[in-house]
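Quick one: co-fold with zinc ion.
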Amino acid sequence: MTGHIPKAEIHCHIEGAASTALVRSQAEKYGVDVDHIIDGARFKWVDFSSFLGAYDIAAALFRTEEDYALLSQTYLESIAAEGAIYSEVFISPDHARIAGLSPEAYVNGLGEGIRRANSSHGIEGRLIVTCVRHFDAEAAIDVARFAAARPHPTITGFGMGGDERIGSHADFVRAFDIARDAGLGITTHAGELAGPESVRDALEHVRPSRIGHGVRSIEDPALVEHLANEGIVLEVCPGSNVSLSVFKGFDDHPLTALRDAGVKVTLNSDDPPYFGTSLGAEYAIAQDAFGLSDEELRETTRTALEAAFVDEETRAGLLAKL
Ligand code: ADE
Ligand code: ZN
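Sure, here it is.
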């Protein structure tokens, strides 16, 4: 049981956090059939590409500022009920644009949901603007410029998700430079679907302080040592990794080996309803499958708060809750 442990997450995609019930109600609102992507309480997908396909269809059902306020509010309240005190969510202005919403209305809606969840449940939330790797690199520059202008006070970071099997971080140097120069925290997905060379590619070209996943670094002991020495924080998502068959099961998952090698790891849910998980479930997996004690789970929360893209006063207040 981990209900009493204060939890913090730094890797969750807001579009991927919409429950099947919320997606269904949005589909009814807009008269769209979603039977091909939802079966009861589960999203239907069979591999990474079809997962991304279902994700895009669900995301296109959030079309107004209020739709996004409802999404971030309901998501943050759901994890606050599991003991979460902090959540940093990845947001994608490209998905909003495809749904017909301006990036300004998108972040205003998400920010309003964060405000509501904070006043109802005390949870803190921040937004990491992401570009999408399998969209084009020019679009990423526009997204970075938008984030760099700080259109909402809850925007504190910049990152990249999408299909890691395509292209290189070298194509996104300009976008990441714009975001870094504006003082945003930097993270990026690597070492999930691709191996250690992809993590090295990310470190070389965009110099992140954190890596989304990064778990396949375990295939390269020199890289693991480098991550430990440099204090690069991994945003580990065990349920997602097993669901997407990055590892066969939790027995094969490298979380414990990475921790033992001195790498800083955090626990995260990625796209929770797609992978049948939640932040609370990830902490339970860490306890039941990886044998972390209550104290070690608290340490994991501490690592997430120390790595969070948040102002020092808020960080100190959150750390005091541990
Ligand atoms: N976008 C949403 N979920 C993702 C994941 N697990 N990897 C890369 N991009 C994503
Ligand atoms: Zn992710």
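If it helps, Residues 13, 16, 161-162, 189, 192, 240, 270-271 surround adenine (ligand 1) (CB under 6 Å).
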